[in-house]
Amino acid sequence: MERTQQKEWTLNPIDWVFLVLTLIGALNWGLIGLFDFNLVAALFGDMTVGARIVYTIVGIGAVASIIEIARHVHPSTFVSRTEPGISPR
């Protein structure tokens, strides 16, 4: 089996900010699911301008994190599965 050497993946400061924002959003959703407690709403009020800004920034962080991960995932990571007897086009 051939091993390919992967490039080191380092995060720049902006990527760290996006990652932290994504984790904050994930933790907030975990609190909502487990304890029916919305930390953002508790801190900023229910759908106030402040809360909406936080939700928007967290959402932008999540999209940026997805883009950053997609840039570093090599296409060979995904295994194409075909049914027996059917050749891929």
Textual characterization of the structure:
By secondary structure, this protein is an all-alpha fold. The chain has a domain at 13-72. It has three helices and no strands. The chain has helices at 13-35, 39-44, 49-72. α1 packs across α3. The two termini are 25 Å apart.
Uncertain regions spanning at least 5 consecutive residues: none
Mean pLDDT: 81
Proportion in β-strands:
under 5%
Rg is 19 Å
Q: How far is the N terminus from the C terminus?
A: 25 Å
Major sheet summary line: none
Tell me the number of helical segments per DSSP (H or I, 4 or more residues long).
3
**Classification by helices and strands:** mainly alpha
Global geometry: elongated
What is the number of strand segments? 0
- Percentage of helical residues? 55-70%
- Element-by-element helix/strand order: HHH
Task: Write a short abstract of this structure.
With 89 residues, this protein is mainly alpha-helical.
List keywords for this structure.
single chain; 89 residues; mainly alpha; elongated
Task: Summarize the helices and strands and which ones pair or pack.
Layout (H helix, E strand, L loop, with lengths): L12 H23 L3 H6 L4 H24 L17
Helix pairs in contact: 1-3
